């Protein structure tokens, strides 16, 4: 470091890159500075808040020269909320940033040669309308500084609620605002108190809203610190006036915890689930179900997984981290047999019901950790797989899962990733153990945020000639 910078020092910074959390990154005196709300191309004035040896954090004060990619945020609370870290960046630039993020992770962490990446990397799949895409929202309930009932989102890095009834989240379903107003009005009228996490008192903790975009069905589930909701039939009657209302439930959570949902779900009115479709598959979604929050892009994501799997109707497929069977049932349409593995028992129950709902008989499901079920099935029964599909959480695949996949020697591994860094790490292991990267397709599941999902295809190494043919076939598929 040429010259030591101090806390509270004012600096002028040109933003050259962006961090994992959407912070702008620029360099001053050889030190990287992370600056929230700055985007690539901005020249900003900032105040240094914290310095380490080779990097620091600064607060944006003024945008001296705005980036060509800068635009006005649709939501007036975008900066304070923090849920949309890059809403002030033009959408085409968001897509370019995310594609570069995936490529850099595969290059730096995955050790994939750049010339190979240039061959296998496809364009990112964006949205025509990158707003109003979320089919699920969870709103904390509390009181504002004036003591009024409120519900909304927590401001970034705080537990201060940004009130939604007065503003409208640009990512959520249009019905959400009306639902919150109905619930808060009901609570006010009947003297029902919001939960206070400091005193562990009050009843209503959160309001969960889910909507089936294809079916129009809506679910409202109140998370409560108690056994029941007083006058719940009145609330249900009011909510039922909203078109599409299908399910009104409550979830009992009496624990001192940051976990939102409790395991005990009670039905007030209607069903205890809603349904929605991805492609031709109908899914049953309960309050506790994991279901991708962007159904429009989910169809494209799972369509890519199905395309990369290259199924002909004869293959045995293992789908690890299968959730409620979303990808499994997509694959079952073209596979000989599909086996899904998921740690959450309720999700597996939903997966079995979803298979029945769609009259799919060639899919079976196991409850357990992927890192335990797959090695156990391989060791005890010598199970085989032509194709293995993995859709792990952000931490990526456990090492034993990767090792077992390699031992099982499937022809193809389709990896659906929600974190480019762990994708890079796991691709590195698989490339070092007999597989080569043959296709990469990023999908923008979360516009206005820094998150990106990616589907990659790894093919079992045979010979250089075979790999060349598969790369050429992938190129033909794209043209």
Strand order of the largest sheet: 8-7-6-9-10-11-12
The CATH topology label of the largest domain is Rossmann fold
CATH class of the largest domain: Alpha Beta
Mean pLDDT: 92
Give helix % range.
25-40%
The general outline is globular
Q: Superfamily at the CATH H level of the largest domain?
A: Vaccinia Virus protein VP39
Would you mind describing this structure in some detail?
The chain has 479 residues and is an alpha/beta fold. The chain folds into three domains: 10-70, OB fold (Dihydrolipoamide Acetyltransferase, E2P), CATH 2.40.50.140; 99-128 and 294-478, Rossmann fold (3-Layer(aba) Sandwich); 136-278, Beta Barrel (OB fold (Dihydrolipoamide Acetyltransferase, E2P)), CATH 2.40.50. The chain has twelve helices and 21 strands. The strands form four sheets. Strands 8-7-6-9-10-11-12 form a seven-stranded mixed beta sheet. The protein is globular. The N and C termini lie far apart (49 Å). 46% of the residues are buried.
Summarize, please:
The protein is an alpha/beta fold. The chain has helices at about 80, 90-110, 115-120, 175-190, 230-240, 295-310, 325-330, 345-355, 370-380, 400-410, 420-430, 465-479; strands at about 10-20, 25-30, 30-35, 45-50, 55-65, 135-145, 150-155, 160-165, 205-210, 220-225, 245-250, 265-270, 275-280, 280-285, 315-320, 335-340, 365, 385-390, 410-415, 435-445, 455-460. Helix 2 (about 90-110) runs parallel beside helix 11 (about 420-430), helix 6 (about 295-310) crosses helix 7 and helix 9 (about 370-380) runs parallel beside helix 10 (about 400-410).
């Amino acid at each position: 470091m040429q010259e030591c910078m101090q806390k509270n020092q004012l600096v002028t910074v040109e933003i050259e890159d962006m961090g994992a959390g959407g912070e702008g990154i620029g360099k001053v005196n050889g030190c990287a500075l992370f600056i929230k709300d700055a985007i690539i191309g901005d020249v900003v004035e900032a105040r240094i808040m914290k310095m380490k040896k080779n990097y620091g954090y600064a607060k944006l004060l003024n945008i001296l020269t705005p980036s060509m990619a800068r635009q006005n945020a649709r939501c007036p609370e975008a900066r304070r909320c923090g849920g949309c870290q890059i809403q002030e960046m033009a959408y085409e630039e968001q897509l370019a940033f995310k594609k570069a993020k995936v490529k850099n992770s595969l290059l730096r962490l995955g050790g994939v040669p750049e010339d190979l990446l240039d061959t296998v990397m496809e364009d990112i799949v964006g949205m025509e309308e990158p707003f109003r895409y979320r089919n699920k929202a969870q709103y904390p309930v509390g009181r504002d500084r004036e003591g009024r009932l409120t519900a909304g989102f927590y401001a970034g890095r705080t537990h201060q609620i940004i009130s939604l009834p007065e503003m409208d989240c640009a990512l959520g379903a249009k019905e959400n605002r009306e639902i919150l107003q109905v619930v808060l009005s009901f609570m006010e009228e009947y003297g029902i108190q919001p939960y206070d996490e400091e005193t562990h008192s009050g009843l209503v903790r959160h309001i969960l809203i889910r909507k089936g975009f294809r079916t129009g069905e809506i679910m409202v589930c109140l998370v409560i610190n108690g056994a029941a909701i007083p006058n719940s039939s009145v609330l249900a009657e009011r909510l039922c006036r909203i078109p599409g209302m299908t399910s009104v439930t409550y979830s009992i959570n009496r624990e001192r915890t940051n976990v939102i949902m409790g395991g005990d779900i009670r039905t007030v009115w209607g069903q205890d689930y809603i349904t929605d479709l991805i492609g031709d598959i109908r899914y049953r979604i309960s309050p506790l179900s994991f279901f991708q929050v962007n159904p429009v892009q989910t169809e494209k994501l799972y369509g890519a997984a199905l395309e990369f799997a290259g199924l002909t109707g004869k293959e045995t497929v293992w789908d690890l981290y299968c959730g409620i069977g979303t990808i499994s049932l997509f694959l079952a349409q073209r596979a000989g047999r599909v086996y899904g593995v998921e740690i959450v028992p309720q999700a597996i129950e939903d997966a079995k019901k979803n298979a029945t709902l769609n009259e799919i008989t060639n899919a079976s499901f196991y409850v357990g950790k992927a890192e335990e079920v797959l090695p156990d099935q391989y060791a005890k029964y010598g199970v085989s797989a032509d194709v293995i599909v993995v859709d792990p959480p952000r931490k990526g695949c456990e090492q034993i899962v990767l090792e077992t996949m390699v031992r099982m020697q499937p022809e193809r591994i389709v990896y659906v990733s929600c974190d480019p860094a762990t994708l890079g790490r796991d691709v590195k292991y698989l490339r070092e153990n007999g597989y080569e990267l043959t296709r990469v397709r990023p999908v923008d599941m979360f516009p206005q945020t820094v998150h990106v999902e990616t589907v990659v295809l790894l093919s079992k190494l045979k010979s250089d000639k075979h790999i060349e043919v598969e790369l050429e076939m992938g190129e033909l598929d794209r043209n």
